[in-house]
Design the sequence.
């Protein structure tokens, strides 16, 4: 499917549509240090313009919701929902709904550093409170670094009843039963038009949800971003753009057409 076909289909249905996107790799470029991630120029303004045209806006992210709101300045976007940690928590209108940290994650926090003790010193752990992420983007050979750690990380996750989810040079350990498909499905309930933009392995379930919605009669499309280097995500989507700058351009086109 061509991107202009998606634009032509969604634009006349924008009022009441759900426009949802990931953050890292879509509104922003992937960077070695997640704390330095920022939206590309014009992305938030273009996203917000869709809301002023009547669309319902959502960011569905593996990050905790409060961090994404802070890094991206999303509190300036009216009527936005941020589904953080794959739907484990929700931020809207300045209010965060979350849950207590389970014992399994507390035990993970204690034991995961022991596994990394003999690993490449460039490998580090991001603590999202309700999940932990092993980052290898700063390593000289990220794939090799993660491959060496994966068996022990997976064994620990199995022991604690957690799930390991690979991403772009990362391994995330989180509670079972939460993914972007579930978060997108809840936000899309009752919507006749849905557009989702993602870039990574964690977005593939959301693209599958887009296909499920379309089979159910919803006008629904998924757009992937190539620059994150995850061909599986591109293959799972209906169309692709090259960079986060192109995502901003897509949103501007939808809002101004």
Sequence:
């Amino acid at each position: 499917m061509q991107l202009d076909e998606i634009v032509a289909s969604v634009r006349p249905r924008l009022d009441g549509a759900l426009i949802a996107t990931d953050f890292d790799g879509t509104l922003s470029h992937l960077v070695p240090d997640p704390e330095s991630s920022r939206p590309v120029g014009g992305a938030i303004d273009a996203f917000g313009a869709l809301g002023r045209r009547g669309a319902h806006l959502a960011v569905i992210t593996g990050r905790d919701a409060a961090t994404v709101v802070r890094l991206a300045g999303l509190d300036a976007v009216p009527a936005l929902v941020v589904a953080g940690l794959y739907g484990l928590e929700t931020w809207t209108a300045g209010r965060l709904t979350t849950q207590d940290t389970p014992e399994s994650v507390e035990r993970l926090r204690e034991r995961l550093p022991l596994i990394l003790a003999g690993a490449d010193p460039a490998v580090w752990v991001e603590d999202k409170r309700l999940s932990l992420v092993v980052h290898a983007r700063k390593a000289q050979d990220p794939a090799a670094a993660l491959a060496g750690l994966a068996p022990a990380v997976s064994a620990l996750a199995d022991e604690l009843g957690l799930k390991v989810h690979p991403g772009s040079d990362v391994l995330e350990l989180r509670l079972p039963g939460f993914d972007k498909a579930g978060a997108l499905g809840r936000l899309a309930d009752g919507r006749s038009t849905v557009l989702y933009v993602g870039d990574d392995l964690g977005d593939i379930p959301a693209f599958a949800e887009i296909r499920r919605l379309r089979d159910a009669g919803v006008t629904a499309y998924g757009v992937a971003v190539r620059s994150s280097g995850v061909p599986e995500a591109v293959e799972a989507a209906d169309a692709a753009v090259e960079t986060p700058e192109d995502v901003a351009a897509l949103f501007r086109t939808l809002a101004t057409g």
